[in-house]
């Protein structure tokens, strides 16, 4: 299978698992060597990445409004721009970049502009 198809497959799996707040399923996209770069700093390994998504799911729980504004894939790189709204936060813009190695996410950057009632 060509790399761009694999990247699309991994990204689709990731987005469906994220939309369902399915932590176990989302973790299948990562390995112990995976790293997520976030506003709070880099996170490496499955335990750290799991905690990151647990916290993120409190901001964007299942059933939240989520709109994909842009989705681009080139070889093993995927880039998305999105918006979301939930009872606890409004995110007018969020962006993620995924670097896929094999069929796993090796590097993932995530940033969003978040408005909360706090």
From TrEMBL:
InterPro entries, alphabetically? Answer: NTF2-like_dom_sf, SnoaL-like
Source domain of life is Bacteria
Q: Which Gene3D superfamilies does its entry note?
A: 3.10.450.50
Signal peptide (from-to): none
Per UniProt, residues of the SnoaL-like domain are 16-108
> What is the protein name stated in its UniProt record?
Nuclear transport factor 2 family protein
Source organism of the structure = Sphingobacterium oryzagri
Task: Provide the taxonomic classification.
Answer: Bacteria, Pseudomonadati, Bacteroidota, Sphingobacteriia, Sphingobacteriales
């Amino acid at each position: 299978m060509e790399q761009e198809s694999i990247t699309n497959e991994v990204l689709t799996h990731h987005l469906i698992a994220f939309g369902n707040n399915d932590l176990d399923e989302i973790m299948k996209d990562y390995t112990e060597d995976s790293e997520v770069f976030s506003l709070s700093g880099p996170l490496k390994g499955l335990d750290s990445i799991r905690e990151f998504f647990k916290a993120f799911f409190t901001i964007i729980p299942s059933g939240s409004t989520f709109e994909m504004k842009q989705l681009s894939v080139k070889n093993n790189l995927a880039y998305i721009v999105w918006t979301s709204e939930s009872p606890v936060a409004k995110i007018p813009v969020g962006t993620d970049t995924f670097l896929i190695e094999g069929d796993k996410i090796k590097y993932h950057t995530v940033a969003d502009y978040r408005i909360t009632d706090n």
